[in-house]
Write a structure and sequence with these properties.
Layout: E1 28-32, H1 38-42, E2 47-54, E3 57-64, E4 67-73, H2 78-93, E5 94-95, E6 100-101, E7 109-118, E8 128-136, H3 152-162, E9 172-175, H4 178-184, E10 189-196, H5 217-223, E11 225-226, E12 229-235, H6 238-248, E13 251-261, E14 266-267, H7 271-287
Parallel strand pairs: 1-4, 1-7, 7-13, 8-10, 10-12
Antiparallel strand pairs: 2-3, 3-4, 5-6, 7-12, 8-9, 8-13, 11-12, 13-14
Length: 288
């Protein structure tokens, strides 16, 4: 049995951080970072069953064109993803009364809709990009046994080409779901290799008042190439979602609205429109 201190429940039987019960989760789950973006998605639904929020974790489950979908805000960063992925998995794969893993496990479809900045000049703002791989620069996933699911050859190439300082921890590379890739691909959806940083400023090469360990890291990442695979964009959740998804047996894909281009210093003049267009694209693909 899993100890009460390890799998914490609220007095009403809901899981600790997400404040959810098993029957409230659909098999198809959309992740967003911003809690205000949850209703930007569910406003398209035919009906919404409920709304629950605890801290930055807001969840709504409802029906869109006959399909039951859960939309959940994760907040920002790999540490939040660690909470969301583990508690979401517990809701469907652990009996919360006996605290025992279920004999028959459920595999969720998890689709991240997020914003991101392009690292390449030829990936313009207002484009859509699907992450074929997530590159974790955050070190959170190294708390788990990930060698069986990571792309070690790409990791080694990244470490060598960027002269990565191992004091920051070993980067990890995880592939997205091939099934969901096929489901969401189209001629307007670019495909890429997405870096996941553990912070927004120093970890992504931004300098305000604090100097950073490697001022050339962004240039090195821009130039990275492994058998034709190059780094396309940088954000803060994809690598962690892919890693925990693979370990827990869930299908995960990350869809990015490119609202900034770090290579040429531009930012979208209509970022909200771009995000709204990606939301509509995602919902359409989910029910096709």
């Amino acid at each position: 049995m899993i100890k009460n201190s390890e799998l914490i429940l609220n007095p009403d039987g809901s899981i600790y951080h997400l404040n959810l019960k098993p029957e409230q989760i659909a098999q198809d789950v959309i992740f967003v970072g911003d809690q205000d973006r949850v209703e930007k998605i569910t406003q398209h639904f035919d009906s919404v069953e409920f709304t629950v929020q605890k801290r930055e974790f807001k969840t709504q489950t409802g029906i869109y064109k006959g399909k039951r979908i859960t939309v959940m805000s994760t907040g920002i960063g790999p540490d939040n993803i660690d909470i969301v992925m583990n508690e979401l998995d517990a809701l469907v794969n652990i009996d919360l009364e006996t605290k025992q893993p279920k004999e028959t496990l459920t595999s969720l479809n998890i689709i991240r809709i997020g914003t991101s900045g392009s690292l390449q000049a030829d990936i313009p703002v207002d484009s859509f990009l699907m992450s074929k791989f997530g590159l974790g620069l955050d070190n959170m996933l190294r708390s788990y046994l990930i060698d069986e699911v990571s792309e070690i050859a790409i990791e080694e190439a990244f470490i060598a080409q960027t002269n990565w300082d191992m004091r920051k921890g070993r980067p990890y590379v995880i592939a997205g779901s091939e099934n969901l890739e096929k489901r969401f691909e189209s001629e307007v959806m670019l495909k890429g290799f997405t870096g996941t940083a553990g912070g927004f400023y120093g970890p992504q090469g931004r300098i305000l008042r604090l100097d950073i360990q490697d001022r050339d890291l962004n240039r090195k990442m821009d130039a990275f190439n492994y058998q034709g695979t190059r780094m396309t964009n940088l954000e803060m959740e994809t690598g962690a979602i892919y890693g925990l998804g693979k370990l827990l047996g869930h299908q995960c894909i990350s869809l990015n609205a490119i609202i900034a281009n770090r290579a040429n210093g531009t930012f979208s003049s209509k970022p909200y429109d771009t995000v709204d267009a990606l939301i509509e694209y995602t919902l359409k693909k989910m029910v096709e």
